[in-house]
Amino acid sequence: MTLERGPRLAIDVGTVRVGLAASDPDGLVATPVETLRRDTAAAADVRRIVDEVVERGARVVYVGLPRHLSGAEGASAQAARAYAGVVARAIDPVPVHLVDERMSSVSAHRSMQQAGRPGRKQRSVVDQVAAVIILQTALDAERRAGERAGELVTA
After folding, report:
1. Which residues cross the membrane (predicted)?
2. What's the pLDDT at 107?
């Protein structure tokens, strides 16, 4: 199977912030886009994601699914699933896939510490870095399998 060429987006869903990352059209490299304030009342964050999908011509959106190390799903995973459903309905027919993001936030914090970024300044970009890790993992899985990574979310 040949994957349709085009940018991909990734979302790291948090309770306060949402990180966005995007790829190049060939799906080789993930780069940070921005950190959005989570807006459960007015859904401004979802509208911004819709804008990014349209502006970039995204072919798929990956949403990180935060499982426990055991693989079990807790409250955070259920919240990510619900958020992915909202995004899927908002960007239909662009597909949304959930991808395992175990340790992406831990890896993001670690890489920022190694880069010498102080803890207080990490908050503003850690979600973007986590989204980059989620997206790069999905891109690598796409190349290995020749198909979209993760679990398709129905709109």
Report:
1. none
2. 56
